[in-house]
Amino acid sequence: MASENQSKLIAAFATALNIEPSLVKDELAYNTIPEWDSTAHMSLVAEIEDAFDIMLDTDDIIDMSSVQKAKEIVVKYGVEL
Amino acid sequence: MVLEGYQVRLEPVKASDLPMLRQWRNDPKISQHMLSNALITEEQQLRWFESIVNDNSQQHFVIYYKGAPIGSANIKSADGVCLRDSNCIEPGLYIYEDKYRANLLAFAPTLLLNDFSFYDIGVEKLKAVVLAENLAALNYNKKLGYEVVSEGPLIEIELEPLRYEVASKPLKRLLSRVSGGK
Between A31, A49, A56, which is nearest B102 by CB? Predict the structure, then answer.
């Protein structure tokens, strides 16, 4: 389950940011690549919410500034990684 | 006048804010993006504060997030009249705290200022001038619906209410959530 969820999270990033899954590393951060801008961030929120059937609080949407942070946040919502 | 929403609070600049604002404004990470990046002295800043504190054609704010100051914002009448009678306003802001500079939260104070300008005052348009090399600011403003009206070393951009309404809707939705649970 954990590795399946890892894959889902990577797929969510790859889809929302329109990048190769291999580029989705923990250190990848908001606004450090042209593909991760505010529009992509909004898509990312939607992709993550759909993938894990959760609804993120605004604080978490603001705090989700890197792949590593996204992992920490989805775990808070009960997602096993 | 205090503006609050989208997770942030804008409070009018007070005399006690001046040392913090001067340190922020003189920091190269902020001043490099300003039209003038000359160092501002305490005396200059005091004269500026005395000139704006009772000037109803402009309003300057400190931006707070979760009770902590994170940046500065302002609105000025482009017509030089009282803000309430203005048809065109020039908003401006910077986020000082690194954590929130490249962050979705950076849109929140602008949404508040734009809502106030369009829906409370009822201005016809907003305008801004951005240094051509400041691509981050240009992209940021385009996300809010701004259109380029004049190019050069300084780029003039303008925003009309309808374009703002459409462009800002998804951002507002995300920044207006309170609690989760699906």
Answer: A31
Q: How far is B117 from chain A (nearest CA, A)?
A: 23
pLDDT in tens, B45-95: 999 999 999 999 999 999 999 999 999 999 999 999 999 999 999 999 999
Q: What is the pLDDT of residues B4-22, one digit of tens each?
A: 999 999 999 999 999 999 9
Q: Which domains does chain A have, with CATH numbers?
A: 2-76 (1.10.1200.10)
Helix, strand, or coil here: A3? Answer: helix
B3-173 CATH choice from 3.40.720.10, 3.40.630.30, 3.90.1720.10, 3.40.109.10: 3.40.630.30
CA distance B15 to A34: 40
Nearest CA in chain A to B102: A31
A54 contacts B177? CB cut-off 8 A: no
The string of DSSP letters for A15-64 reads HHHT--GGG--TT-BTTSSTTSSHHHHHHHHHHHHHHHT----HHHHHH-
